Amino acid sequence: MPTISERFAERKAEGRATLVPYVTSGFPSRAATVDVLGGLAEAGGDVLELGIPFSDPLADGPTIQASTFRALEGGMTVEGTLEILAEFRRESDTPVVLFSYMNPLLRYGLEAFLEDADQAGAQGLLLTDVPTGADPLIEDVILTSPLDLIRLIAPTTGRDRASAIGKQGQGFLYYISRTGVTGAREALAEDLEAEVSALREIVELPVAVGFGISTPEQAALVSAVADGVIVGSALIQALDQRGPEGAGAFLSTLRSAMDEGPNARDSS
């Protein structure tokens, strides 16, 4: 089973960016989530983000919030998410990052969660509300676990702070393309290329860009300047409106644009 770092390295060697789709566990239903994950992997998803529903998802915009609330109404839990992952793992070795807020994991028991998540087949963990240095004890427990601790970096992050975050991160760095919450946008930040270029000069981990990517054209532009492309809200919208097959078809358009478009990466 490839690690997150190995998957990014594979795509880099191929001259391609890594595609990282996000879905909410239990959305549109518990029964559908395994099929959704499998379809995204087949459609070109290289590293999958599986969100654990939480009742107060402050970092997320209305689309992902709505999917979270529907998943909770359907009875989805941390335990249920790990069960879904274990079921998916029986048919796929695509790396999976669990996306969560801290509260559900504290309630579960952090060390127990890390052990159970590893057993279920997770490769990474992204926590939206534990910035670097916020709680060294919690961070050390995760950093020394089998799961990679994926760090977030914002456009407002200073150079020294970004360097520190990079040294305390694993797998890849999640670069937030704009301030605010998650959500599809019609246009990318005008200075995104310069921001990513500056960040890549001071960190060693691959840099994947998320927040606002919603079209094949945007995915192609981001793939030309970053190591990875993260898509969440637009994918959730496609899943809600067109079902699992529609979500897979949408992701395929992003993959094709990243690989074949005018801004496709040069392997040299």
- Total strand count, please? 8
Shape: globular
Structural category is: alpha/beta
Distance between the termini: 27 Å
Q: How many alpha or pi helices?
A: 11
Q: Main sheet, how many strands, which sense, barrel?
A: 8 strands, parallel, barrel
Helix and strand run: HEHEHHEHHEHEHEHEHEH
Q: What is the CATH superfamily label?
A: Aldolase class I
Radius of gyration: 17 Å
Number of domains: 1
How much helical structure, as a percent, in the residues?
40-55%
Q: What is the CATH architecture descriptor?
A: Alpha-Beta Barrel
The CATH topology, please? TIM Barrel
Low-confidence regions: 180-185
Description:
The structure is a single chain. Strand 6 (173-176), helix 9 (192-200) and strand 7 (207-210) form a beta-alpha-beta unit. Residues 180-185 have low confidence and may be disordered. The protein has 268 residues and is of the alpha/beta class. It has an 8-stranded parallel beta barrel, surrounded by 9 helices. The protein has one domain: Alpha-Beta Barrel (TIM Barrel). The protein contains 11 helices and 8 strands. The protein has helices at 4-13, 30-42, 62-73, 78-89, 102-108, 110-120, 136-143, 159-167, 192-200, 216-223, 233-260; strands spanning 18-24, 48-51, 96-100, 124-127, 148-153, 173-176, 207-210, 228-231. The relative contact order is 0.18.
